[in-house]
Write a structure and sequence with these properties.
This protein is 40% helix and 25% strand. A 6-stranded mixed β-sheet has the order 3-4-5-2-1-6. α1 packs across α2.
Length: 130
């Protein structure tokens, strides 16, 4: 029998994979998923991606929000950084989506900060991807 916690974790993984897929489909680069379940009780997953411009970061954020709402019936609980467009954070409870421009991503270096997290394989959105 699956517990509520297991069910919530499975759902969080599905949302993280969906957000990563959309980030890749909207030309995000260096898309990563970090599994934080063994490190903190606050979040299950981080999705991290880099965009080339403020416009692209907005497009990624908007499309992630639309897909998670339409296909997964989930709404973001909050967002930060949208107006500035250098680091946009979308809060989906157990999943946090971090969209950076290249400079901000290098500066904040979340992968290093959360280096104890387990990387999750991100299926490529297209055949020509990594």
């Amino acid at each position: 029998m699956t517990s509520r916690k297991d069910s919530a974790t499975d759902r969080a993984r599905i949302l993280a994979l969906a957000a990563a897929r959309v980030a890749e489909e909207t030309r995000g680069t260096d898309v990563r998923i970090l599994d934080l379940r063994e490190i903190t009780p606050v979040f299950d997953y981080f999705v991290i991606a880099t965009g080339a411009s403020r416009r692209q970061l907005h497009a990624m954020a908007d499309e992630i929000e639309a897909v998670l709402k339409k296909e997964h019936h989930d709404r973001k609980r909050g967002a930060e950084g949208y107006e500035e467009g250098r680091w946009i954070v979308l809060d989906y409870g157990d999943v946090m989506v971090h969209l950076f421009d290249a400079e901000a991503r290098d500066y904040w270096d979340i992968e290093h900060l959360w280096s104890d997290a387990t990387p999750v394989s991100v299926p490529s959105a297209g055949a020509g991807s990594r």
